[in-house]
Each structure stands twice: as C-alpha cells, then as structure tokens.
Here is the input.
Amino acid sequence: MFHRIGAAAYKADLSNTIALCKILGNPEKEFKSIHIAGTNGKGSTSHFLASVLQESGNKTGLFTSPHLKDFRERIRINGKMISKRDVTSFVEQHQSDFNNIEPSFFEWTFALAVWYFAKENVDIAVMETGMGGRLDSTNVVKPVVTVITNIGLDHTQFLGTTLNAIAHEKAGIIKPGIPVVIGETHEETELIFDEFAQRLHCKITFADQHILLNKTHFTKHRPPLLAAEYHSVLTSGSYQLLSPLSGKYQLKNLATTLCIIENLVQSGWQIDKKYILQGIRKVVKNTGLMGRWQTISRNPLTIADIGHNPDGINEVLEQIALTPHEKLHFVIGVVNDKDIRTMLSKLPKDASYYFCKADIPRGLDAEELAKLAEAFSIKGKTYTSVREALKAATIASEPNDLVMVGGSAFVVAEVL
Here is the structure.
C-alpha cells in the first residue's frame, strides 16, 4: 500500500482504475464532481468547498487523503463518514474480481468512493487527487470545475524535479471546455496553465490575480484569549469570510474556494452568500477537518500541523513566527521519500527538537533523522515513539513555550 510503504506500491497509469470502474458499471459517471489537485492546500480547499455546498442544500460527497484517525475519513457524504458496513460489504463483494487486477490501496479506495457516491445519489462530489493529476486515479471523473491550488516540489521521484515538470503533471486534470481555477500564480508555471487552458478552450482564473484585480485585501483577526488562535478572514468585495482554521496560509485556500464558487454560480448553481459564509464558518463541524494548525493543548500551548514538504514547512514556520512564545519545542518525524534535507535547512536552530518515527514502514528512523539534522546545526534527542517525544516536549516546556508537532501527516495522526 502506497499509504504505508511508498514507491513500491505506486501505479503510474490509469489502466487499473479504468478496469475497476468498468467492473462497477462506471459509477464515476453518475454524479457531478469538482476535481482538486495541488502540492499544498488541496485538502483544506476541498473541505471548505464541500462545507459550502452542503450548507447550500446539496447532498455532497467528499473524497480526500490521507486519513488521520480512521480510514473512513477519506469518504464522506455531508460530513458523515462512510459506514463500516459499506466498506466491508464492498470488499466482500468485489475482492475476487479486484484481486485479478492487483490494485493499489489508493485505487481500491477511489473505487469504493465512486461506488458509494453513486449508490447514495450525491448531487456533487469534491474529489481531491492523491498525488499529481494526469495519472492519478481520480482523473477519470468528469468535473464541472477543475482546480489546481498551487505547485511546489513534492513527490519529485514521480512527478518531476522542477516546478515546470510538476505543473505539467497536475495540469493533466484540465478537461476540454471545463473551467479551471489556479490558486497561486508562479512565474515558472503560469504560462503552462494558460497554454493548457487555451488549447482545451477552458476559462481559467488565477485566484490570487482575481483578488488583486478586484481590490480585495487580506486581514487577520486574533482573538484576545489565545494568541496562537488566529482566525483566517478573507475580505472580498461584499464578502468577509471568517474561518475557524487559524493558519494564515488558509487565506490562500479561502480565495481559491471563493473563485471556485463564483465559477459554479456562473454555470447555474444556486449558492447564496449566506451559505458561503455559513459553510466557511462551519467547515470543521461539517467536514471533520483536522491537522491544520490545530490546537491540541493549551497548557503548554501545543499545535499540530501536517505540513510535510518544503513549502508546507515554510507555511508552518511563518505561522510559528506569528505566535508569541518564549521557546519552541519541535516534535518532528518524517517519511523517507520526502525532500528531508531541504525541510531541515529551513528549521530554526534555536529550538529544542524531539526526533521520532511514525509507526509506518515509510517513516524515517529517528536516529537517522537526528544525524541528518546535525548537518544543519539542529540538535535534539531521539525517542522510540511519537507519544514519547510529545510527552518529553510537554514536560520540558515552560508556561509560555510553544510545542509544535509536525513534519508528517502520520506523526500528527498519532498525536491526534
């Protein structure tokens, strides 16, 4: 399973997915969808959008990855996870036929999702890619809008080692005549997306450019009771979108979400302003989103964030800088197929580090991580588990310190 072992389980084409869907009667064609790719931000954007669609009265499917506590988090309708019985009955019914195809974990899961969404007659499903775009299992859906949140260096062993190459892979989800929203403009990739859109006759919107053209500005609000709990506020024309997700980086995802909604409204979807405001405000309640600058303790202040690549770490460090604290205690573990050295090069030297390994085969050994960190003058102690590392960081912290848990979604999952 790619989820656990990484590259050995990767399937670099859509043939398995197409075969699975054929066995199921092509359920992916039975519902409308919004297809969302991107290096970072696609999960939060997917949850924002699903919450708004749900508040608007649509029966809304949501397919995301990875899960943090329960496999069923990946497949939801109106925020409710797929039932255990639906999962087991699906496997029992299709295991024999599927085994002949030898699908990956993600291919199995995608097949389960589209079967479930079709069975339950959803009005629309928000479908997040697993990795890349062109060859991702989700690329067999027929979307009403396609979305690429941003482009960064991640999964380079599969998608390419440059932003240009990765952009081409993610642009592979753009469909003829279907509007496309790009969350962030990069000089290296803007022309690529423009060329794809022009060739395929798609309307294209760059969310950050769209905001500037409409003289929209970003603000942030900090509640007086807890300095770490920033709420994201996006002011756009007559909108002021207040999100319970407190990371400043959520402003980008809010802007992207708003652009997607504008495209839906222009194509005939009825989404009133009040439902947009409610959907953003109730995103955690409606969708169960976790692991994005999430406060897990207040004494000491302990934050968990799943940022797990160089760009994601940059966002985490920017948020740490906005959070008043005396000393930083960083509980960190990584998986072995990431750009670990670049991530380490960005970390502050004056923090205390607690190196650990998530309990999966892909996890990098804590001792090995500590040795890599030494090359960047980053020092700390190693621990036999994520929980032991967090316990040590908590004990060592003073009242005004900050404990940060991150480096991998799997590390955050064990804490949660």
In short: The CA atoms of residues 38 and 403 lie 28 Å apart. The radius of gyration is 21 Å.
